[in-house]
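User: Sequence in, structure out. Go.
Assistant: Echoing your sequence, followed by the structure tokens.
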Amino acid sequence: MNMSGSRNDRMEDKPARLTVLIAAEKKKAFEALCASQDITASQVVRQLIRDYLARHGVTYTVNSAARAAASSQGPAANESN
């Protein structure tokens, strides 16, 4: 049965997870710097991705579910994902 509110439609509205492998000491230093600036590592990475996409002229659409999820994570996360 293919309904408009199918499981695939709902999954597309969810934020995606990105796994990045880095050296443990680099991660610790990055998280400490982020904490000292009262921002999460995830917020910094999302901003880096937005900047990188913009620098290369890549446009994208943020769906309402992703925007709502980001807004629950603080002000810096609420910027255009």
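User: And one key feature?
Assistant: The chain has one domain: 21-78.
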